[in-house]
Amino acid sequence: MRPSAMSRSAVRSPATRSGCVGLRPIADLLDGLAFNQRAVIVLRFYVGLSNVEIADALDCPPGSVGPWLNRALEHLPKVMP
Questions:
Q1: d(Cα 21, Cα 15) in Å, to the nearest integer?
Q2: Is 60 left (phi over 0), alpha (psi -120 to 50) or beta?
Q3: What is the DSSP letter of 23?
């Protein structure tokens, strides 16, 4: 199998690969976070904003973004299967 064909197959159906059964949708995992932590995760990793841009979007001090992100990233592995 060509590497590119294997990659497409893995992307199309990750739940069928061994060890991936029982994955929770990312929205369910994010629901367990506080609003500010969830917002920072979405704005950073899905929208691609910087800390300053996130702070501006959330109308908070730029110094708050880093700790919220760190707390969220510490929490997620605890709830992931």
A1: 6
A2: beta
A3: P
